[in-house]
Specification:
Largest sheet of chain B: 5 strands, antiparallel
Strand order of the largest sheet of chain A: 2-1-3-4-5
Largest interface: A-B, 38 and 36 residues
Number of strands of chain A: 5
Order of helices and strands of chain A: EHEHEHEHEH
CATH class of the largest domain in chain B: Alpha Beta
Number of strands of chain B: 16
Structural class of chain A: alpha/beta
Shape of chain A: globular
Number of helices of chain A: 5
Strand content of chain B: 15-25%
Number of domains of chain B: 4
CATH architecture of chain A: 3-Layer(aba) Sandwich
CATH superfamily of the largest domain in chain B: Histidine kinase-like ATPase, C-terminal domain
Oligomer: heterodimer
Number of domains of chain A: 1
Order of helices and strands of chain B: HHHHEEHHHEEHEEEHHEHEEHEEHEEEE
CATH class of chain A: Alpha Beta
CATH superfamily of chain A: Response regulator
Number of helices of chain B: 13
Radius of gyration of chain B: 52 Å
Strand order of the largest sheet of chain B: 2-1-7-6-5
CATH topology of the largest domain in chain B: Heat Shock Protein 90
Helix content of chain A: 40-55%
Distance between the termini of chain A: 10 Å
Strand content of chain A: 15-25%
Amino acid sequence: MAGSKIILFVEDDKPIAEMYSRVLEREGYHVEFAYNGAEGLRKANAKHYDLILLDIMMPEKTGIEVLNELRGTDGSGNPDTKIVILTNLAQDKTSQEALKAQADGYIIKADIVPSQLASIIAKLL
Amino acid sequence: MKSELFRRQTLALFFIVSIIPALIVGAVWYAFTTTNTLNFLLLDFNSFMLPVMMLGIIPAIILSFIFAEILARPVREIHRAIHRLAVGDFSRQFNIKGSGEFAEINVALEQVARKLEETLSQASSETDLIKAERGKLHSVLNSMSDGVFALDRSGRIVLFNKAACEITGRTITEVAGQLAEKVMPFRSNGELIMTRWLALGSGAEHKVGQWKGLELYRADGHSLTVNVEAVVLKDDPNGIAALVTFHDLTKSNQLEEMKIDFVALAAHELRTPLTEIKGYLDILHTEAKGLTKTQQKFLGQAMTSASQLGDLMHNLLNVARIEHGEISYQSEVIDYRSFLMDSAENIKERGTQQDRIITITLPKQPLLILADESALKEVIDNLVSNAITHTQPGTGRIDITVTARRTSIETAITDNGSGIPNHALPHLFTRFYRVDELKSATRGTGLGLYICKSIMEAHGGSISVESVEGEGSTFTFILPLHTVATNVVKDDNKRTITRGAHGWIKNNPVR
């Protein structure tokens, strides 16, 4: 079932993207990558994804900016796409921003291992 | 007596002055009437009597001058003396010559001079004192780093210190006599704060008001954040109705924000390599085939250490956040029993991984509390971590027991570990405190319990410890039961925390 789900991974740190995608692909997800915010936004607008994993600190556009553009001002954009922030920025301020912008989750990378991410995603999709 | 004498002397003088010419004229008349005829007298009166009379008048005039001089000298001296007094010369004797009244005047004037000198010197020393006091007050007010200003009864500024000028960018001439609400309008959420309060205080007794984080605009339009303290004075003799002190927070706030941003950024940079260490170890653990038992043990040790490193960083950063007051707890009504039931599996799993047995005993009924789930999870994680650290693999046993009281819930976490020496018990919840730092084989920052205590206090609860060295410890935290136990509607945006205090995943996404 997971095999039919498509995930867009927007992350500028390639080793980290590789690390998570290895586990996600093992679980049967199809993972595509974008290595900066602008590229992520372009790809997200070009095609439907079941889930978008967004890093925050990226060149060109931050993850929060991408999230805001995808959800739109009223927060209703791309309703069929789950968007989860995956970052090491742990400020309440940023976390609240993501909540307000209608993210479906906010995960601190260092707090989890890839297999935990896989089980979180399994529950979400 | 003396004035009587003076009158007699004056009369005598007058008598002499008027009698001498009369005697001269009389004597001449007598000499001529006895020797010559009346004709001769009548004929020669013009040529003879006139010079004779003149002879009498001249001494009279001279005597008058002498007399006038005798009278005028003391008067002149009195005049001079009074003039000297007028210009403030009290030091000399006046030397008013003469006897009787003049001597009396001399004495009286000397007394007046002495009295005046005394009074004036007293007054001038008081003026010096006042000047000195004013100087001191001026120095104190102007060396203060906080802005100070005073208002008169009409609300106009009558005093404005140097710091007030510097903070607001205004000069004394600009603000003097101006209405305080016009030049110094303190606002909170756009609403004027002080004016109403000061007005309410007029006529009332002394009162003090304090406000934190008020907004004030500088003369150049820049916004400032200030803490304000105001005192309303009742019946101040100097006409001061209120004294206002304000402290500029803008700079310290900026510094504080920079510090928080720096810590956040540093934390981000530290977490990134940790993410990869933990992540790749996890992948290795799952994928590596054919490892020997020892190799698996090594891998397990590396994973444990990586996760400990994560916990240490997490705690250090949390303390920084607690200290900066940056932590805001998102409290909501939750069922503590189901919260623990949800976490039970994870907690027990931790024990199994570390070869300890963890049991959880819960009451049968739901237990509603108002709390931040992630914070509670933090407390339990910390206490379980400590219990694991201080027990031995294989024999270690940790019992989590929840007991419902009438108004509170008690959670006891008991272990059969090394226990805590008595002398350490009172310091256990202090920041950075570690039991026998150098001897201790266990690792830790001494922050976990401090964080637990902070979280409990923020939830209106408490935490305590009982321990017997060599036998084990029991940590007990008590949370107040939520009293309005009516139907709790679950918020759709309710967050379930995956791990740690910051992350969240929406339970039942609305879309």
